[in-house]
Structures are given as C-alpha cells and as structure tokens.
Amino acid sequence: MQSGKNTMSFRSIFDAGELKSELEKSGVKPSFIPYIWKQVIQNPDAQLDQIPSLPSAAYPLLSSKFKTLTSCVHSAMDSSDQLTTKLLIKLQNGALVEAVIMRYDTRLGKYNGKPRPGGMRSTLCVSSQVGCKMGCTFCATGSMGFKSNLTSGEIVEQLVHASRISPIRNVVFMGMGEPLNNYGALVEAIHVMTGAPFHLSPKKITVSTVGIIHAIKKLHIDLPGLNLAVSLHAPVQEIRCQIMPAARAFPLVKLMDTLQEYQKNTQQKIFIEYIMLDGVNDEEQNAHQLGKLLETFQVVVNLIPFNPIGDLSKFSTSNEEKVSSFQKILRGTYGIRTTVRKEMGQDISGACGQLVVNKRSIENTVLLTDIEDLQVR
After folding, report:
1. Which residues contact 89 (CB under 8 A, 6 or more apart)?
2. Residues 6+ positions from 334 with CB-CB distance below 8 Å
3. Which end of the chain has fewer CB within 10 Å, C or N?
4. Distance of alpha carbon 109 from alpha carbon 106, whole angstroms
5. C-alpha to C-alpha distance for 39 and 54, rounded to whole angstroms
6. Residue range 299-311, pLDDT digits in tens
C-alpha cells in the first residue's frame, strides 16, 4: 500500500466518474469499466497492472492514478445472535466510518397466511459522510460534527468489503451522515451499484434523509425507482426543531409539499421514520397529529425504539404500551401502514442512532452506531 503524501493522489477504482474521464483521456473505451470492477471484486488481491485483456494504454494509467481499494476493514464485530456484523472501515486519509450488515430470514414472515419463500438475505447499511452536520439531538453521530464527504468510490467500497462477508441484497443509506448533503457522490455511487457487475435493483436501495428539500426535488430524475425514507421524527414543526436543529432550514409545511410532489412524480410509497422519545413525541395527541399530516400520502411509518447513547443521551425510550397505542391510532384511525422496527445489533452498538467515532471506541474496536435498518420488501 502506498503511504505518506502520495496516497492521497490515488483514487478508488470505484470512483466511476474519475475513472471514465481518465480512461477517455488515454483513448481507452469506458466500456472496459465493468470488466475492471468484476476482476477486482473476484480477486481481492488483484493488482491493477495484472488485470488481463485490457488495452495497453490502460495499464500505466490505472497503476499511476488508481487503487483497487482505498479503504480497509479496520475491524469486524458480530452480534451475539450472529445476525449483525459491524464493519469499522478506515479510509486512506485515516478517517473511520461504519457499515453494518444485517441478516434476515424471509421465511420467518408470512405472506397470504403462508411462510414467505426464500431464505437468508442481507441488508447493508452504508455511511455517506464522516460525521454529520444535521445535529439531531437523539443521534450520537451529530455530536461528532461534520468531518468530510465520502467519494462515490469510498461509498461503493463499503459494498465491496461487505460482499466478501455476506451476499448483499439490499443497501440502505442510513449510516453516518446525511446522504443528500453529499448528493453528487450519492448519485454516482448508486449508479455504480445498480450497474454491472453489482446489478442491485433500485427497488432494493433506500436513501434516508432528514428532508433536504432542494435535493428531494431532483431525486426522482437522477435516481428513478429508488426508495425514499424521511426521518420525520415529529408531527409538528416546533417539536421537530427541538430535536432536529436542521429542521429550521426545512420547514415541515414546505417539506410535506415537496414530498407530495415527489410522490406524484414517482407513484411510489414513502417510508417515514419516527423515533419514539418518551414524553417528547410519543403521546396519543402526537399520533393523531402525525396521522392527519400523512393521511393523504401513500406511506409506511416505521416506529423506531430509541437507543440510548450513553452520557450523550437526554432522552428515554418510550415504553411498549405507548408504542403500541401510537401504532394502533395510526393504523386504526388513519389507515396508515405502521411497523415497529426490530432492533438489530444493539449488543455491538450497531442499532439506530448510536454511531459516533471517538478515540475510546477505536481503542476498544467497539463503536457507537447510527444505523437505521429499514426492511424494504
């Protein structure tokens, strides 16, 4: 591996735009790109100058400007039930991000009263930034502040690392960072994931956002067929601003207008994420406010049990009775499909709202994680 100052001049081979541009400059057809990626994926120790059957002009270019992987798995930790694996990934600039693999057995669910077909499948939760500037008060990542954006290649490399552990069927952008604040890299990374040789279906990819209005407006054009999840977390602007400072820049009325337009353009249901905070947003009154806010939409509301974040936490988890009552109001009174999230990976701090990278956590190779493992079916 290269070291020192020169390392930063190397780009990931999965930085699609950069790779395409450099190949074209050297007179090499971009149609070779999926083949190059396939060789790298199939041969973990592959050297770029050893990939067979490329035009001769490609070899000096690839070796001088690109690396097969610019990141590495710093540590991997399995939950006690073996269903969740948390990867701490070290970028070439030394920064650390997390990706979490969550395994589900589809046969445990029911469809038309019968067991679902299929078997084990894996969902990968990826990070899009180091840290986050949104500052949500219930999420540990917000305490880090914003450090940097990931490149599209660094996002895709999380999928490459995870695929070597478990075949990945779904990808959710619910790790560190606000994906729509890194819009260009997000779009490019998803285009790579849905193309050869990864071939993920856009229907199996979900992007979660706190509600970056200007980005949502163009999402359906740049990424058709994608699943959109909105971290709403409160039914009125006042509560939303208390727990999500960024909500001041994206007023609830404008956000709902934007989502209405998005749904009209896509004809797709929207996933609504709602973290249950005791005494803050979990009262029956709040359930009715949320129901009225969403009753004209096609949505699935995902109620998320709050995961404490150690000393950072000023919130408590809503009890099961409150969560159940909240769900019954949304379902019974407003006819809104509502699920309660099954938390995974809590014993390895791999559950929703817990992710923060700090010195202590690195030394212990145990990170607190901001993961929202939305199940998309």
Report:
1. 71, 72, 73, 74, 96, 97, 98, 99, 157, 158, 161
2. 291, 292, 294, 295
3. N
4. 6
5. 11
6. 999 999 888 766 5
Cβ-proximal residues to 81 (8 Å cutoff; 6+ apart), any chain: none
Grouping H, G, I as helix, E, B as strand and the rest as coil, residue 334 is coil
Residue type, 161: H
Query: Which positions are annotated as active-site residues?
Result: 98, 352
Q: 19: which 2 tokens?
A: 């790779």
Q: Which has the closest alpha carbon to 184: 224, 219, 208? A: 219
Output the CA–CA distances (angstroms, integers) from residue 181 to 136, 204, 210, 281, in the order listed.
15, 21, 10, 26
Helices (H) and strands (E) in the chain, counts: 11, 18
- Which tokens hold the place of 290? 């949320």
- Provide the 8-state DSSP code for 132: -
CA distances from residue 52 to 34, 41, 70 in whole angstroms, order as listed: 14, 14, 21
Q: Which residues of 91-107 are buried (b: 16+ CB within 10 A; e: fewer)?
A: bbeebbbbbbbbbbebe
| 3-45 pLDDT tens trace | 444 445 799 999 999 999 999 999 999 999 999 999 999 988 8
* Predicted confidence (pLDDT) per residue in 327-353, tens digit: 999 999 999 999 998 765 455 454 454
Using alpha carbons, select from 233, 167, 177 the residue that is nearest to residue 200.
167
Distance CA 143, CA 354 (A): 11
CA distance 180 to 177: 9
From start to end of the chain, where are the E strands? Answer: 11-12, 66-67, 72-78, 84-90, 96-105, 110-111, 114-115, 120-125, 129-131, 146-149, 170-173, 205-209, 227-231, 270-276, 299-305, 337-340, 355-356, 368-369
Burial of 266 (0-12, 13-18, 19+ CB in 10 A): middle
Cα distances (Å, whole numbers) of residue 340 to 36, 223, 287, 333? 42, 28, 14, 17
Query: Which DSSP state fits 307?
Result: P
Q: What are the tokens at 319?
A: 């009890």
| Rounded Cα gap, residues 19 and 33, in angstroms | 8
Q: Is 283 exposed, middle or buried (0-12, 13-18, 19+ CB in 10 A)?
A: middle
Identify any residues that bridge with 78 across adjacent strands, giving them in sequence order: 85
Average the pLDDT over 196-208 and give the result. 97
